[in-house]
Batch of 2 targets.
Target 1
Amino acid sequence: MHFKELNLIPPVIKAINKAGYEKPTEIQYQSIPHILKGNDIIGCAQTGTGKTASFAIPILQLLQQNSSAQKNIRTLVLTPTRELAIQISENFKIYGAFLPLTHTAIYGGVPQNKQIAIINKGVDILIATPGRLLDLMSQGCVNISQIEILVLDEADRMLDMGFVNDVKKILKKVPEKRQTLFFSATMPPDIRKFAQTILNQPKEINVTPVSSTAQTVKQSVYFVEKDEKLNLLVTILEDQSIKRSLVFSRTKHGADKLVRKLVKAGISAAAIHGNKSQNARQKALDDFKKSSIRILIATDIAARGIDIDELPHVINYELPNVPETYVHRIGRTGRAGSSGVAVSFCDKDQKKDLHNIQKLIGFNMPVIPQN
Ligand SMILES: Nc1ncnc2c1ncn2[C@@H]1O[C@H](COP(=O)(O)OP(=O)(O)OP(=O)(O)O)[C@@H](O)[C@H]1O
């Protein structure tokens, strides 16, 4: 199967070729035709399998084919984190390289003037985190009353407690007649039910069992006492054959503390979490992406969607208490067919969390004995 068989227009095919993709992934192959037909979609596929292109490619094509003389926002993509908004915007840039369509990302933590100036020039596709979008809407700087396509990326996260009120407010301002697309690697049943109230006769595309982890990630767990965790972390990371590792911590404070301890042990590390300025967040991520730091300690703001080329290793210093979060965290490795390793630390207070995670992913992880 080639992208050509998906009835894509030449400028889109040209951009896909330039990106170096040989063939569509399963989720792309299954969702692109439905989206091109104008259907609503719930798309579930494992982490790192190209869900972004599954919506970005057909959206670009639809906007191009039904081109409008007006300069209004025609597609809105909602996404939970600022880093992800930037990344999705970069994806639209790649796939839309040979099309005249414009796009931009708006997100909090940075001044709004530049964002407003770009919107005022006219954009076809707006990628937004909900808070900044509502902010700019309330100031009259953004009008989403003409959108044709609405995307909820990481849909279950967008509709969980932290975001649901914001999303409901946004939904009141978009036209009822629209195409709505939901994408995520995880989709808990209650969220799926709620989704049905927003979508119109959606096609469900489940490429693999919902919430399953990518086969490309080798998972294991250490049972470790709380006061032994730091030593274990240092021992693991001293192994220089691990080129880079992303370490998840449950708290911002815990993340900072780990950075200090690792730096003291001679291991270069930086943290990314919600108490840092947006510039510091982006810098930590960029430094990690270009390998100027070897270890990035993150809270769950980096759990979803973030695509880091050749990231071989993820550590859960603590297990997350929401099992779906585990699936997203370890999905930062083993992307686009490459292989990855994910190790988790489990102390005696976290046995229940481990149980819930293993129930969700449908298997028990091998336990690594400590010597
Ligand atoms: N058809 C393809 N062939 C090769 N690589 C691809 C293809 N489609 C996407 N990719 C690459 O795969 C990587 C993962 O894609 P993407 O970030 O969209 O994954 P995802 O399914 O959204 O993951 P997550 O659930 O973690 O958000 C990206 O680096 C992207 O460039």
Note: The domain at 217-361 is CATH 3.40.50.300 (Rossmann fold).
Target 2
Amino acid sequence: MVNKPPGDAVAPAVRVRGLTVVRGGITILEGLDLDVPAGQVVGLLGPSGSGKTTLMRSVVGVQANVAGELRVLGEPAGSPSLRRRVGYVTQAASVYADLSVAENLQHFTALAGLRGAAGRDAVTAAIDAVDLGGHERQQVGSLSGGERSRVSLAAALVGDPELLVLDEPTVGLDPVLRRDLWEMFHRLARQGHTLLVSSHVMDEATRCDRLLLLRAGTLVADTTPDALLADTGAPDAERAFLTLIDRAAGGTR
Ligand SMILES: Nc1ncnc2c1ncn2[C@@H]1O[C@H](COP(=O)(O)OP(=O)(O)OP(=O)(O)O)[C@@H](O)[C@H]1O
């Protein structure tokens, strides 16, 4: 497992300066400056279409037409050396429905270059991390939606990446599963992983250590849940977000 370095003076896991991304001839992200601190659960929140996936794709190095500075774990985003250090879970499940949980994870451990005992240990550790013990032999196609999401997460975990980039991992899950997943994210952060987790559900903001609030491709706030509520005087994250948007627009509400 990744170990936390001592002290607080740790370089950010992701450093973004002046990031602009154009897709289909349209500027989707414009001049973003932000840091993702190491060892924390950082929420990337914003409405549908605000650019969360585009930013995540840029961080993991699969996005074209990216301008500006984008460093991930000290390397330029997309560097070949980052392939094993960064895990990415997209919104679409990336696991095979006709294989069992264990077979899926064996496939991903092999892709991560882990063979023999190291591969078996990685599969066991990933299954434990996502609490899927007892489901090893079950076909993924017969799992519940929440269990399937956790297999995708386990697949991203097998190489023990330092940075996990998770695109809307809790979408469509019931409140209990959502809570369990957020608890798991914090457990992973305590082990030294950094998690960048997107959501368009504002009440998930309170579950993050830090928050990046995006709207229409610009950063509305880089804050903590407590500071967000204190700064806006709003009773919850959703109303705080609306207050910030009104402020940015020069509104009076
Ligand atoms: N190839 C493309 N050409 C033009 N516009 C695009 C292209 N891909 C994405 N977009 C636009 O970029 C904007 C940001 O999309 P993105 O998927 O990053 O948003 P998001 O915040 O992740 O949304 P959601 O929460 O719905 O997943 C959207 O308005 C989308 O329509």
Note: The chain has one domain: 13-219.
